[in-house]
Every structure is written in structure tokens, then in C-alpha cells.
Amino acid sequence: MGLIVQKFGGSSVANAERVMNVARIVTETYRQGNDVVVVVSAQGDTTDDLIAKAHEINEKPSKRELDMLMTSGEQISIALLSMAIEKLGCPAVSLLGWQAGFNTSSSYGSARIKSIKADRLKAEVDRHNIVVVAGFQGINKYDDLTTLGRGGSDTSAVAIAAAMHADRCQIFTDVEGVFTADPRKVPGAQKLQEITYDEMLELATLGAQVLNNRSVEMAKKYNVELEVLSSLKRVPGTIVKEVAKMEKMLVRGVTKDTDVARISITNIPNIPGIAFKLFSKLAQARINVDIILQSVGRDGTKDISFTVSKENAEGAIEAIHKTFDIDDKDIICDKNVAKISIVGAGMETHPGTASKMFEALFEHDINIDMIATSEIKISVLIDAKDADRAVSAVHKAFLPEE
Ligand code: ASP
Ligand code: MG
Predict the structure, then answer these.
(1) Beta-strand (E) ranges in 123-214?
(2) pLDDT at 184 over 80
(3) pLDDT at 127 over 70
């Protein structure tokens, strides 16, 4: 018995049948004697549809109005879910973000949660209501509605769990948990029982789209234990926490990210300050750089390569032109690349992890373009056409099927 926060993503509430399914999960938890706060996203592709609607009217809608529009998606979900819960005979009350006390920064479209004034939430729980809260939204100091950035409902759920000292925070989705690789693509991908916050953060950032990475950061900060599980198949999911059982695993996951562009600049002068100037220009343009590689200088010149997301490729090239007086032929942009990564806290203390990964790629005749490492991650950049083969090969090397 305790306070349980349950979050359901857009696919879990996509239609009436799914909403009823969620209501059954929620009421079951409630009838077991728990207090329940539920956070929901907009149904199915509603948020995308709303954005498309906005763009039909105005290609550059103001961010304030876009937030006003987008928050309506979650408003639909909370009302429908509360009605479904009532139909199953339990008391429910729906609350928008502002009613639930979500105070955010003022940046529309990517607001940060500043505080949660949980009085109303607590009062509703004390009245034994199941409280259904709209995820992904809050209110800023101008009393305007804001949204937290795409996928922000996970963060709403974790924030409530932290503010109310919930005993558990369950994130329901359409997959059974966190897997060692994409189970739809990699045969032998296994569901993890447990994973650490840091590993999950790396996986989330690397494109394993189970949890929004801000929500994991927040869970780590406030030590909120998360469970990722399926709303459709009722089996135990994956627990995300500070220290996780290693289960003899050196590597916890293999990921592929194809939203990568590699930009190379050749023939730049081999003098101090070049990298500084280039990367500060990129930072000014708010372009996030991932892997960086600089060649050894020769004959007074050197090369620098780096990766950015595909949508930032053009902006990065612009920044290069602003920094150096450089010929177009000395800038090469390649969008046919993919980043393959392995993640695992165990590799910190195990030598030979990188060589094992490179060997698996070599055995499949896959060429490595760039390499980047951190304490718990190794990433390689390869040709996009080899990406799926590379994931399977690396997965097999580290996580053979039992
Ligand atoms: N509905 C919002 C989105 O699609 C928030 C979320 O799903 O978490 O980004
Ligand atoms: Mg959504």
C-alpha cells in the first residue's frame, strides 16, 4: 500500500478501447489499497496532428500559441480517462498541469519545471480520488500555458513522484521494458530486469526511445525509482535505479542512431585557436556537437571532423563559413552515416571492451570512421548501410543468446 504514480504514453491511450484498458490497470492498483496519481500523454499522434494543423495556418506560429494548442491534446486524454475510471466504479478527478501546481520557466515549447505546488494533488488524494494529470504542461510566471518539450510527460510523472514522495513511479508504454537492443530488429534482444540511471541516460540519449532523458535526469536527482513496463502485456518491466544488478553483463545495450551527419573540414591552418573558434561559433548557433576528431597536422594544415544531428548539418556548414574563409570543396558533409554504441557500467572496470567491439565489426568487414568513448559508453561512426548488421554483430559478441 502506498502512493503510486502511473504514466501512460500516447499509444497506451490511443483509442477508446485502450483508454478502458488503462482505466482497468489504474482501478486495479487503486482497489489494491493504493493512492494513485496518473499522468497521461495526448492520444496517439495527436500532438503531431496539432502541430500540422498549426502549420496549415501559419508556417511560423508563435511558440506561445503553439503551446496553447498542444496542451489541448493532453486535456482530451485526462477527461476521457477519468470518465473511463468512473465507469469502472472508482472516483476520479482530472487536472490540467496548472491545476496540479506545475510551475515552469517561461520558455514556451521547452519549459523546465521549476516547482510543483502539490496542495491540490494532495487534497484530491486525501479525498480518495484517483487523480488524472495532464502530462507535458505547466504554467509560467505570466500565467501562460507552457509545454515541456516533446516526450515531456515522462518528466511530469517523475516530478510528481518526487514532489509527493511516491513509493513507485511506473512508466507504461507499448514495449515491455528496456531491451539490450531494439527487439523488433535484433533477434536475441533481451529485456533487462534492472538498469542504472546513468546507463539509461546514455541509452535514452543514444536513441533507445523508451524514456525521455530529462525524466531520467530528474529521477536520478531525486532518487525516484522507475519501472518501465507495457500497458498491453502485464509482465514485470525494467527497473531504473542508482545501483542495478549486473547479471554477469558487461554491456547493457547496443544502440543505433541514424540521425547523424558527419562534417569534415580539410586544409585548415595548423595553428592554435582553430578548434576554439569553430566550436564556439557552433555553440552560438546552438548546435550540439557529438563526436569530434582532429587529424595530426601536416604541412601546416589539419583536418577536423565532427558529427551533428541531420537537421543541424546546414547550420553547421554556415557556422564554418562564418568562422573561416574556406572553399566549399574543403567542407564535406556526409549524411549516410550511423552511430553504433554500446553502454554498460561494467566496462569501467573491464579492459578489452573496445577491442571486442572492434573485432565484431572487423569480422563483418565493417569499417569504422570515428570513435568516441566515455566511462560507460563506446560509440563508433560507420556507413549507414552497415548499421543493422553492425548492431547484430556487436550484440551477438556481448550478449549472446542463452
Ligand atoms: N504529447 C506530447 C508529445 O507527443 C508529450 C508526450 O507524449 O510525452 O510529445
Ligand atoms: Mg506523444
Answers:
(1) 130-134, 137-139, 145-147, 168-173, 194-196
(2) yes
(3) yes
Q: What is the pLDDT of residue 207?
A: 60
Phi/psi of residue 79, each to 5°?
Answer: -65, -45
Ligand 2 centroid to 211 CA: how many Å?
12
CA distances, 201 to each of 64, 136, 205, 217 (Å): 30, 19, 6, 7
pTM (two decimals): 0.86
Distance CA 188, CA 177 (A): 15
Q: Give the three-state DSSP class for 142.
A: coil
- Ligand 1 centre distance from Cα of residue 45 (Å): 9
Among protein residues, the one with the nearest Cα to ligand 1's atom 6 is 151
Spacing, Cα 9 to ligand 2 middle (Å): 6
pLDDT digits (tens, 9 = 90+) for 69-107: 999 999 999 999 999 999 999 999 999 999 999 999 999
Please list all protein residues whose beta carbon sits less than 5 angstroms from ligand 2, which is an ion. Answer: 10, 41
Residue 172 DSSP SS3: strand
Helices 213-221, 197-205: crossing angle, 10 deg rounding: 160
| Nearest ligand 1 atom to alpha carbon 153 | 8
